[in-house]
Amino acid sequence: MQLVAGGNIQIPAQDIEICIKTGFSSDIELDVTAYLLAQGTLKVRGDQDMIFYGQRQTPNQSVVLLESSSKNPNLTKLKINIALLDAQIQKLAICVTINEPNTIGNIVPIDIELYAAQQRIATAHLDTRNRTEKALILAEIYLHNSQWKFRFVGQGFNGGLKPLAENFGVVIADEVKNTTPTPTPTNINLSKIRLDKNNSTINLTKKGNGFGKISVNLNWNKSQPKSQSFFQKLSGSSAIDLDLGAMVQLKNGEIDLVQPLGNRFGRFEVKPFIQLDGDDRTGSSVQGENLHINGNQWDQIERIVIYAYIYQGAAQWAATDGVVTIKIPDQPEIEVHLTDGNQLTTCSIVELKNNNGTIQANREVRYFKDQKYLDEHYGFGFRWTQGSKN
Amino acid sequence: MAISLNKGGNLSLSKTDPSLNQVLVGLGWDARATDGTDFDLDASAFLLSENGKVRGEHDFIFYNQTRSPEGSVEHTGDNRTGAGDGDDEAVRINLAQVPADVQKIAITVTIHEGESRGQNFGQVQNAFIRVVNDQSNTEIVRFDLNEDYSTETAMIFGELYRHNGEWKFRAVGQGYAGGLSAMCQQFGISI
Questions:
Q1: Distance CA B159, CA B156 (A)
Q2: Do A217 and A290 contact (CB within 8 A), yes or no?
Q3: Closest chain B residue to A153, measured at CA
Q4: Cis peptide bond prior to A185, omega within 30° of 0
Q5: Model pTM?
Q6: Which chain B residues are within 8 Å of A156, Cβ to Cβ?
Q7: What is the pLDDT of residues B50-69, one digit of tens each?
Q8: Which pLDDT tens digit goes with each residue over A94-108?
Q9: Which of A111, B45, B111, B130 could form an SS bridge with B142, CB 3.0 to 4.6 Å?
């Protein structure tokens, strides 16, 4: 059955496969995302309800995303087992987004095939000519009168990912307005690179004169259980105080340290080219802890180790849901999750190395008894004494 | 509890709901969230005599002529986007006041310029048309347009008709090519 946009069909089996076929030139990036939408709200409940390249399947594999490495032709498959879907989920929106400055009009027509129990039961064809959207809802799988159905939608948003994601209840934070202006809107949540155990290093090449203002944010969840949504605004107060710090070694051999303990807040315009925003002592600030690296002086910097420590509160790291986000203008966002729990209170998060002028970012996530042990591991060579905040 | 009618199903309004005198035909849909031309759905009523045609142009109640001369049929006005909750357009019919030579009233729903815009009911979110007892506010019949009539751009929803001294409702649910102007021609109005 060939569906026109708006047309729907009942799905006669539990196991479904959706094939999305298209093609595009090598400079184009296309991403397929499935948003799992809850009954009643028709919004996502949290980041667990988005299946995309950063999270290719649900924990029980009710939804699995399979992407092809070839761009032309390009084939993406979504395997869905309806029986395994969480009972709260009433609709899946299957979407494509395309990178700036492209639009859907820049890719070859999209052919969609719907398989149920290995039988092809429907096809749909989307003519991409003259389409101005940067994000499209291709299709929906949804529950209607106790029956699961498939609809070919083919509607979208000229503004791309942000309005699409907001349509499904995903909160995307706006960029801080006074940072170095970027020529294109950044897609905060989805264009980022997640450094994890399988993908622990990335190299970023300079665009223009320098890397601009590099912002490092540490945020953590003070009161909510781990399973709760990461999109929810962090709120509430707590006894836990996490601090963000950095050790830096310059090209000339000088070393320096930036951290709230000892009131070492650093300098941005001059050495050490790293500055800490005020200490979020109460943990009540939704922004968490921030430090800024002067990326225009990257040529003077040899390496930086960014770390966090638990200043107060006997929390385990895993219970804090700590996330460090590194924003470099014109570069994909880097995100590191502090996932492992143990009793060691200091954690190195990421090492930024000057590799022939590029930024090589290595995920560390190593735990130490305190900063002194961390220093010994990385070989900076500071002299340490006991201290506390005023 | 609304009764779900299949195409062509009949329902005696006065037997189902003896108190029925004021009928409200409600049409609702969600405003478009995606970019593109708004979905502009229109509810209309044609007052038809024995031969299935209007007696005159005054028997066509729609967004540009919202009231029949004697006032038995009244349209609440045009909604062009679907903004707002519940019924976005409604046609109110006072059955007792309908002129005696009107044998039936056809209720239609169309997408304004739907064919030229490439739109159909399936592209509209939560599009429905329903018949309600306007006095008790009880829903009698409801169609989910975006589910069951997804590929249509115009349809005859149903007919209120006289039968043995009582009013009945027949759910027609028939898609229609050509939109509102084609319907006008069928019911004897030259555009």
A1: 8
A2: yes
A3: B123
A4: no
A5: 0.62
A6: 34-35
A7: 999 999 999 999 999 999 99
A8: 999 999 899 999 999
A9: B130
